[in-house]
Write a structure and sequence with these properties.
This protein is 57% helix and 11% strand. By secondary structure, it is of the alpha+beta class. The protein has a 5-stranded mixed sheet with strand order 3-4-2-1-5. Helix 7 packs antiparallel against helix 8.
């Protein structure tokens, strides 16, 4: 392990403000073979930004399947409605939280906006193209990826309908796990995806989500947090 890796992992170990479990375990889709995907947010001490070499915007590890963002980078992505980042704020499996992390969670609503439609849809389209390529090349998609794409589409549709992000897929668990096991045909899965996409477009017309996130509230949070770290 080199010195930089050790320094990065120290940031995660000593300065994490929020850590949670994501993936199938957070979505209610875990089975006996599911991995434990960990995600976190660390607050790099303000004096580290006074050097020529800035602290990293993200760190992988030190545990397997663990990934963490520096607080400012996390907020930037959340304001852009990055699906993976937004969902972290709604995990039911919180492993670590500090007062700064609690304030971050209290800002969950400030990150939500109609930008979620574009970001979730853009991500979904990319994943769907990969699945279609698998079908052309191998006759079938990667079923696990198809399951997670369907879950994401359900989440996006419901977010636009209600203005609230919910990641619990338990109501659809049986059918989604059937997709993962390859028990539905690609035609059935493709039709389900198409139907969800149509419902998402319809929900956009009447969504209660604001046009823009509350950037001022997030900026104030970051300013106060950086200032407190400097002092």
């Amino acid at each position: 392990m080199n010195e930089q890796t050790l320094a990065d992992e120290t940031l995660v170990a000593e300065h994490t403000v929020y850590a949670c479990v994501m993936g199938s375990r957070a979505f209610g889709l875990a089975t006996g073979t599911s991995d434990t995907d960990r995600r976190g947010v660390y607050l790099a001490p303000t004096p580290l930004f006074w050097r020529f070499e800035k602290p990293p915007t993200h760190v992988e590890g030190p545990l397997p399947e663990q990934f963490s963002w520096e607080l400012e980078r996390f907020c930037e992505l959340a304001l852009k409605a990055n699906p993976n980042v937004l969902e972290c704020l709604h995990s039911p499996l919180v492993e670590r939280i500090t007062p700064v992390g609690e304030e971050l969670l209290a800002l969950r609503g400030a990150f939500l906006s109609r930008h979620a439609h574009a970001s979730f849809t853009r991500y979904a389209m990319g994943q769907r193209r990969r699945l279609e390529a698998d079908v052309r090349l191998h006759g079938a998609p990667r079923w696990k990826h198809a399951m997670h794409l369907l879950r994401l589409l359900v989440s996006c549709r419901d977010l636009l309908r209600t203005g609230r992000l919910a990641i619990d897929a338990t109501p659809h668990r049986d059918r989604l796990l059937a997709v993962k096991r390859g028990e539905l045909s690609w035609q059935e899965v493709d039709a389900w995806m198409a139907g969800l996409s149509e419902e998402t477009e319809a929900a956009l017309a009447t969504t209660p989500l604001p046009a823009e996130p509350d950037r001022a509230a997030v900026a104030d949070f970051l300013h106060r947090t950086r200032r407190a770290s400097a002092l």
